[in-house]
DNA sequence: AGCTGAACGTAATGCTATAACAAATCCTTG
DNA sequence: CAAGGATTTGTTATAGCATTACGTTCAGCT
């Protein structure tokens, strides 16, 4: 029962066993607080969508989410999932992973809303890492070309510590 | 006639007027040399695909390329374009832009094969920037989480110098 | 109760990408 | 040169991702 606590500020934790019920409900609480502040509504579909994403540290495709929603009595057409996902993304509660055409719950809403993503190619789990220093360098490189960076996609594919320890190639 | 020369090492140039015939044919020459070294063949479809990408500094969707190829007597089914594009990408002659689901010619084959991309949201042109320093920081950040980066997608969306000068918002 | 705007549901469609297979071409090697 | 294997091109079909358009429902307000 005394599993280690998930600390969103520690990306390594996402790849290791942790008290997932805790990290999941913490994110849900943070989400509710955040939306209340913004005056936005966490309706049943939206809430359920977030819960589904929170069940794992993996990224899920929109249709995978849709299947789950449909099975639970929500609509079964693509816009149902896309709308809920888009709402979550635009309110900082989830992220879209360009490389995977997929979505993942934000594990630390209210902190760094444009993290770098670490995607393990072996276990498929996704962690968020502090992107500020990376962005800073990118902005410098771009500035040298007279380019002003507004948004940046930073996604790393590789091997997480757990999988490396287990001897994954 | 004496337009300024395009220097692939200077990303700003991609966004400015330059002797595009030169930068295009230079890339084509470099491509041929490179493939010869690798023992790969630049067949007609592949060559034409590269030329099409080289016509602009923009990224093109696979179907946009396909339309052009079909109009010129090549096959008109998706795999025709996807195969040629995949060949170019895997041989370092073109890049795929995750954010746009599109492809752009590599303007400096044989140099930095995993650049950062600067995508102007106003003129849609794409430049390649030196990604090494950015990757270095990203690897450090990831290493702190025990994650080993193998490949990284780094794409910046923003405003290029030319568009900023023209007063684009 | 009646109004209004947000949210939800469905149908239809478009865009992106790949699997599977057949025909043509190239490159050996005898 | 002929035979055989590998590569390339082409086609059909289908899978996977995403959006447009439109009607209905529902919360919140007057």
- Structurally, the number of domains of chain A stands at 1
Per DSSP E runs of 2 or more residues, the count of β-strands of chain A stands at 5
Which oligomeric state applies? Answer: homodimer
Query: What is the tally of helical segments of chain A?
Result: 6
| CATH H-level homologous superfamily name of chain A | Winged helix-like DNA-binding domain superfamily/Winged helix DNA-binding domain
Protein chain pair with the most extensive contact, residues per chain: A-B, 40 and 40 residues
User: How many strands, what sense, and barrel or not for the largest sheet of chain A?
Assistant: 3 strands, mixed
> Mean pLDDT of chain A, rounded to whole units?
91
- Taking the alpha carbons of the first and last residues of chain A, their distance comes to 32 Å
As a percent range, the share of strand residues of chain A is 15-25%
Shape type of chain A: globular
* H and E string of chain A: HHHHEEEEHEH
CATH topology of chain A: Arc Repressor Mutant, subunit A
Q: What structural class do you assign from the helix and strand content of chain A?
A: alpha+beta
Helix percent of chain A reads: 40-55%
What is the topology, as strand order, of the major beta sheet of chain A? 4-3-5
CATH class of chain A: Mainly Alpha
What are the segments of chain A in which pLDDT stays under 50 over at least 5 consecutive residues? none
**Cα-based radius of gyration of chain A, to the nearest Å:** 17 Å
The CATH architecture of chain A would be: Orthogonal Bundle
